[in-house]
Amino acid sequence: MPPSSASTSDAKPAAGGVQSLERAFDLLERMADAGGEVGLSELSASSGLPLPTIHRLMRTLVSCGYVRQQPNRRYSLGPRLIRLGENASRLLGTWARPHLARLVEETGETANMALLDGDEIVYVAQVPSRHAVRMFTEVGRRVLPHTTGVGKALLANVPAEEVRALLGRTGMPAATDRTITDPDSFLEALGRVRQAGYAVDDSEQEIGVRCLAVAVPDSPSAAAISISGPTGRLTEAATDSFVPVLQEIAAQLSRTLATQNPS
Questions:
Q1: Which residues contact 253 (CB under 8 A, 6 or more apart)?
Q2: What residues contact residue 211 under an 8 Å CB cut-off, 6+ apart?
């Protein structure tokens, strides 16, 4: 990603902000975008900050446990971030649950919320369908993005070169014989998601299960919501009526998250 105006060496902090804190958090986000491990020169190139400034900030983050220096002198995200992330995910799930409950009420199918965490999809909230035959995904479960509707929804607007880099790190193992395992085919599928405004997982994660997903616009963390059910219920006809409901509830959830994170 190009450096933002808030992260260059001559940038001014936001009103009432502390520049060193803003820079430190920006570096953590850049590390996450790079897959969790980077060198100082990479951070300098992407952020526009001079090496001495980055070294000083990273030394502080290391001493606090939020960053770890590897034997090869590169830096990786540290273990203290795990607890923060887990608590933040739980909060997001709490705020999302009423919206997911409405989604179940409107569609009859199991509703999920998922985040893009590094190179993986993690499910942070679920409200189950009332049908006897229903889908169940454990909250906290992690999967690779290329196998899921939420993964496609979240990657649809990510630059192609970044998607290719992610797929290069994770590989594209097949969960079923319907899973997309070729980067070019996956990028074509993302183009269809952008055009349609929603993503489909048609037995790509689990045979006989269909999933419809949309990204949550302007979410503070890359998030998507989805419904999943048997292919016999989530038909093409059902898709036409359910997608507008998904999009409407995603917009409502976005407004809820905005009130929890005022700018």
A1: 95, 96, 99, 113, 216, 219, 225
A2: 148, 149, 150, 200, 201, 205, 226, 227, 228, 234
Ranges of H-type helices in the chain: 19-33, 40-47, 51-64, 80-107, 149-155, 160-170, 183-196, 236-260
Confidence category of residue 191, pLDDT binned at 50, 70, 90: very high
What is the per-residue pLDDT across 6-61, written as a single tens digit (0 to 9) for each?
A: 333 344 444 555 788 888 888 888 887 777 788 888 888 888 898 899 989 988 88
pLDDT at 7: 38
Matching CATH number, 82-260, of 1.10.287.1080, 3.40.1500.20, 3.30.450.40, 3.30.420.40: 3.30.450.40
Nearest-angstrom CA–CA distance, 113 and 122: 9
